[in-house]
Amino acid sequence: MKTIAVAVMTSAMLIAGAAIAQSGADLAKSKNCLNCHDMDKKKVGPAFKDVGAKYKDNKDAEATLVTKLKEGKGHPTKVAATDAELKTLVQYSLTGK
Ligand code: HEC
What we know:
The protein has about 100 residues and is mainly alpha-helical. The protein has one domain: Orthogonal Bundle (Cytochrome Bc1 Complex, Chain D, domain 2). About 60% of the residues lie in helices and about 0% in strands. It has helices at about 1-20, 25-30, 50-55, 60-70, 85-95. Helix 2 (about 25-30) crosses helix 5, helix 3 (about 50-55) crosses helix 5 (about 85-95) and helix 4 crosses helix 5. The longest helix has 19 residues, at about 1-20. It is elongated, with a radius of gyration of 17 Å. Bound molecules: heme C. Heme C binds next to helix 3, helix 4 and helix 5.
């Protein structure tokens, strides 16, 4: 009985953890970024690899891109995501992580 309770608790914790800290790659997929972007290839939008290269020396890159995506300025779509999710997505766009 005790073993089962521990197993249930552990999986509940794993699920909760995944919901809080979704990886950039998973978010990019679930937010449909990958319909228009790819890491290595230009599609409708630029390859994330090229975005990373473009913003390499820009220390405001993260803030700039979060605003762009959030407000749909300089980006064809307004991205519906929380600030934390946007941050993760932008980091993923810039670094692939
Ligand atoms: C409908 C297609 C489409 C979708 C969906 C889309 N993008 Fe884009 N994205 C583009 C296009 C087109 C550009 C190039 C815009 C430009 O340079 O004028 C772009 C540019 C970008 C840039 C670079 C902006 C810059 O300043 O160089 C980033 C970062 C980006 N997108 C991230 C994302 C993320 C993250 C998502 C998902 C939440 C996403 N995009 C969803 C089409 C899309």
